[in-house]
């Protein structure tokens, strides 16, 4: 039999009515006024003081204090304005610090609506803090205002708390009505009681009880406070512009966030009607996140500032937004908050992430959210959709989080139940990606590990069309308003550039094996690197990403397979028939030869208005942002070659820009430098000191087993940690960050983020080839982190490369990383104090000496 220590409420009558309090009790008073709550708090506090209890008053509301200042009472002020996670974490830390058997009084929880605007989040806070208080044998008083919360919020509080009491004031009389008293019972416990002084007189007469309850005002309909606010805002549409602007900014603070550069941009272009339209497509409550905001404001800029230039060419969108509060609710209701608190500590940041990720992948959504998910899926029908991360910090000025979080395609085939199940798992996958190692490391490196990362989700209809059993857009890609990828001085950097692919845009933002996106300089779209026919074919796209309706999955197909069918428009917009290859096959005796394509987009760039439209679009967005921008887009053509562009995303592009001109050193003898090149570098005009070179040897690396290649990548990650704050250059064969070890070293970006310079070296002998993946997520990371990039194509005209200048120096690998000594024949670290890199963007010269 469990034995509980009984504690007085300070009022003998109430003690008798509920058989006193127990250590561990959370007591929730449902009240009509703060004055009523104070009448219950006063005796409880005085009794606690008499009993020598440790008393803490948690103060966060704007209402009058419920306890007077008293040297025997600790007043803890918590800032609810900072948001749910920060507030809940702060209170959790307080309770942990104060320890067992402390006594608490909390301000009225209803006042949290002023800051969070959501009933759901008040319920979440109570579900987070109440069990922790119970664990520590505390007693805590809370209050909520009657008729101010939804029935589901009250139900959640009732389920979680140990004691729930209705407190009524009718005329001059005070009544209590216990609704829940955990593990206690008497025949009269749950009847109303009249409180007179220290007495609580039970009302047993049916006539008296009926008279009492008929005098109490009860609300029939209880909408979430969030919905109440937006419903009232609709009426403001009929009022003067000044009132509309004030209401709009208030609503923006609820779905967009605090004052910021992006907030002011939204304020400039969105009307109250726009904000209400966005809110009408939100599932749950809270912020809609950076990716959603970027997409919406970019479209609004193009529609308003572009006047009639862009509207005829824009594909409409009908996106949905899953609010950030749904993420918190999911964490809380799946009992993962305690684990999240452990993960948020310095020691547990990486340690508990895998466990939390696993928990997120297997949770359940609240029924109310499930119903909203289903209604959204019924709206989209069987159209393919994509579930995209849209965290609050994502796609903002300074922090793009490019590629750090997941995006999941839902091909949306099958029964409604199957489609719903796939969608739910897609949302879980995006939520779980907040615990990806790369995302965590990015947050640490950007000084964001202590910031709340509120994960919202953007659900978009996939742009494209059905082509037999496959679904894809004709083209997609990344566009940048500033072009730092220049290979000759005639390129106009301000005209911008595109990284263009056929099919889904996944091949444009990820580094893909054996495939190359088409880089388009928008000042002269047909300009290409000087290369022969075979190179043009080699350095082009050979595979296409599509959605397979038959397999209900994202799939990669060979280009020839797609081009052999009807794509509902002119195929030569995207590729040039490769007659040389066809003739070669015929000469070899093959019959029924279909002419393959070289995917160069030549006709699209030469004979349509697409490149000019994209140049103007990027220029306008950059001008309004007053900052270089990076967009993702699709483009679809009709049979008569008319097209529509769908801007899927827009974010500020972190770039060093041109900078001041650098005086280049003279190079009288090629042996005087470590390397020199013309073009093939990114980062602007620089003069950078290089004190350490970390060099991965191509031939020795190639001879390793695949497992050993991955081990080398992890060694580079540990060296990267040691090089933090030093002027270090990382140099290696092929592509850094590839997922295929035969193409380069498969490091994560977090394993090279401390390097000042990143160098990819072509090795024809070993088969390694750099790829200037401008616009890819990997490149975005390089640019954001201010890493200077250079590719060395040894043997090309104008390229000098003297690796012995490094390799003849002492290899200090063992002193930097003792555990890496077994790879000393593969990884060479030299101290190179005095070495510098010089680059000039105009002449496209680069020298390292």
UniProtKB/TrEMBL annotation:
Name of the protein: Pyruvate kinase
UniProt keyword Plastid, yes or no: no
Annotated keywords: Kinase, Pyruvate, Transferase
UniProt GO MF annotations: ATP binding; kinase activity
A matching Pfam family: PPDK_N
Species whose genome carries this gene: Clostridium thermosuccinogenes
Residue intervals of the Pyruvate phosphate dikinase AMP/ATP-binding domain: 288-666
């Amino acid at each position: 039999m469990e034995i509980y220590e009984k504690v007085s409420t300070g009022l003998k009558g109430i003690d008798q009515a509920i058989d006193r309090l127990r250590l561990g009790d959370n007591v929730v008073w449902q009240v009509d006024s703060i004055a009523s709550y104070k009448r219950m708090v006063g005796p409880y506090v005085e009794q606690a003081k008499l009993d020598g209890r440790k008393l803490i008053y948690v103060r966060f509301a704007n209402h009058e204090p419920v306890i007077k200042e008293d040297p025997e009472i600790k007043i803890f002020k918590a800032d609810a304005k900072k948001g749910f996670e920060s507030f809940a974490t702060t209170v959790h830390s307080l309770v942990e610090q104060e320890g067992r058997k402390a006594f608490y009084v909390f301000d009225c929880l209803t006042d949290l609506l002023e800051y969070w605007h959501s009933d759901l989040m008040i319920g979440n806070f109570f579900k987070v803090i109440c069990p922790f208080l119970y664990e520590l044998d505390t007693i805590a008083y809370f209050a909520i205002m009657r008729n101010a919360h939804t029935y589901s919020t009250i139900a959640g509080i009732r389920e979680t708390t140990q004691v729930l009491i209705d407190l009524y004031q009718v005329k001059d009389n005070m009544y209590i009505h216990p609704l829940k008293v955990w593990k206690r019972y008497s025949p009269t416990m749950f009847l109303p009681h009249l409180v007179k002084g220290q007495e609580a007189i039970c009302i047993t007469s049916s006539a008296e009880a009926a008279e009492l309850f008929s005098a109490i005002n009860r609300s029939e309909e209880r909408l979430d406070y969030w919905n109440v606010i937006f419903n009232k805002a609709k009426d403001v549409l009929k009022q003067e512009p000044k009132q509309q602007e004030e209401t709009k900014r208030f609503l923006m603070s609820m779905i967009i966030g605090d004052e910021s550069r992006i907030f002011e941009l939204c304020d400039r272009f969105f009307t109250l009607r726009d904000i209400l339209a966005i809110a009408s497509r939100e599932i749950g409550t809270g912020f809609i996140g950076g990716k959603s905001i970027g997409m919406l404001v970019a479209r609004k800029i193009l529609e308003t500032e572009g006047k009639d230039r862009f509207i005829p060419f824009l594909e409409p969108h009908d996106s949905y937004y899953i609010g950030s509060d749904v993420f918190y609710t999911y964490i809380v209701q799946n009992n993962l908050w305690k684990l999240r608190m452990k993960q948020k500590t310095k020691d547990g940041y990486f340690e508990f992430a895998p466990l939390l990720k696993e928990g997120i992948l297997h949770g359940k959504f609240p029924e109310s959210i499930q119903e909203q998910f289903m209604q959204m899926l019924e709206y989209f029908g069987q159209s393919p959709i994509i579930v995209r991360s849209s965290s609050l910090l994502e796609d903002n000025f300074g922090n793009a989080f490019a590629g750090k979080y997941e995006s999941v395609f839902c091909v949306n085939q099958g029964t409604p139940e199957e489609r719903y199940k796939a969608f739910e798992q897609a949302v879980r996958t995006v939520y779980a990606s907040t615990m990806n190692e790369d995302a965590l490391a990015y947050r640490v490196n950007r000084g964001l590990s202590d910031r709340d990362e509120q994960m919202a989700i953007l659900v978009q209809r996939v742009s494209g069309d059905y082509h037999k059993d496959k679904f894809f857009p004709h083209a997609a890609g990344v566009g940048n308003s500033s072009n730092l990828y220049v290979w000759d001085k005639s390129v106009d950097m301000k005209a911008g550039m595109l990284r263009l692919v056929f099919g889904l845009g996944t091949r444009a933002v990820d580094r893909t094996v054996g495939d190359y996106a088409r880089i388009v300089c928008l000042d002269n779209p047909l300009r290409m690197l000087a290369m022969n026919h075979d190179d043009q074919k080699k350095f082009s796209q050979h595979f296409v990403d599509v959605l397979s309706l038959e397999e209900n999955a994202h799939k990669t197909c060979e280009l020839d397979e797609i081009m052999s069918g009807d794509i509902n428009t002119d195929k030569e917009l995207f590729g040039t028939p490769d007659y040389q290859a066809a003739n070669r096959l015929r000469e070899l005796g093959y019959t029924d030869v279909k002419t393959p394509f070289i995917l160069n987009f030549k006709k699209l760039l030469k004979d349509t208005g697409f490149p000019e439209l994209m140049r103007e679009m990027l220029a306008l967005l950059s001008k309004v942002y007053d900052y270089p921008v990076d967009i993702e887009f699709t483009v679809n053509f009709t049979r008569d070659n008319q097209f529509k562009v769908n801007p899927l995303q827009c974010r500020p592009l972190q770039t060093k820009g041109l900078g001041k001109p650098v005086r280049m050193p003279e190079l009288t003898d090629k042996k005087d430098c470590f390397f020199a090149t013309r073009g093939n570098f990114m980062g602007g005009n620089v003069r950078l000191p290089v004190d350490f070179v970390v060099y991965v040897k191509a031939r020795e690396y190639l001879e390793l087993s695949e497992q050993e290649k991955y081990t080398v990548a992890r060694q580079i990650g540990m060296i990267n940690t040691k090089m933090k704050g030093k002027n270090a250059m990382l140099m290696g064969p092929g592509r850094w960050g590839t997922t295929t070890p035969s193409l380069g070293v498969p490091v994560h970006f977090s394993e090279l983020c401390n390097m000042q310079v990143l160098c990819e070296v072509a090795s024809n002998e070993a088969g390694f080839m750099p790829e200037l993946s401008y616009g890819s997520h990997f490149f975005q990371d390089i640019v954001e982190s201010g890493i200077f990039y250079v590719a060395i194509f040894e043997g090309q005209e104008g390229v000098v490369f003297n690796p012995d200048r490094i390799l003849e120096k002492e290899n200090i690998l063992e002193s930097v990383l003792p555990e890496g000594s077994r790879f000393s024949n593969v990884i060479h670290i030299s101290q190179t104090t005095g070495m510098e890199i010089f680059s000039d963007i105009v002449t496209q010269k680069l020298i390292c000496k």
